Amino acid sequence: MISAVESARATRLSNAVAVFSGIDKITGRITTFDVYIGETVQFGALQVTPHVCYSRDETEAPKTTTFVDVDEITLDRKIRRIFTGWMFADSPGLNAVEHPVYDVWLQSCKPNSDVPAPDTAAKQ
């Protein structure tokens, strides 16, 4: 009986890269960017730091999630946390980053990126 339950449970895949999109509401420009888990990427006045990024095998129903911190760099150069929590690629509005100028949402997770990993880039 346990094996039947185990096989029915979807396999969660841990990924090294979270793919986000962000919009600058002033210009209307949308940017897509890769962020390695545990690293921080700046988008406008926001700093995005994913801690995990999970997806499922291609044979299963899609479910892509990330646990992320989003900080704002204020005009007086202070860092203020504006979001900590789970983002869901299939429901970007569920846990949205609320900011007057920028929106950021999860697109996908992937095992690697064309962008060099931070320690690889430092060695070049």
Automatic annotation (TrEMBL):
<dbReference type="Pfam" id="PF09923">
    <property type="entry name" value="DUF2155"/>
</dbReference>
<protein>
    <recommendedName>
        <fullName>Glycosyl hydrolase family 5</fullName>
    </recommendedName>
</protein>
<dbReference type="InterPro" id="IPR019225">
    <property type="entry name" value="DUF2155"/>
</dbReference>
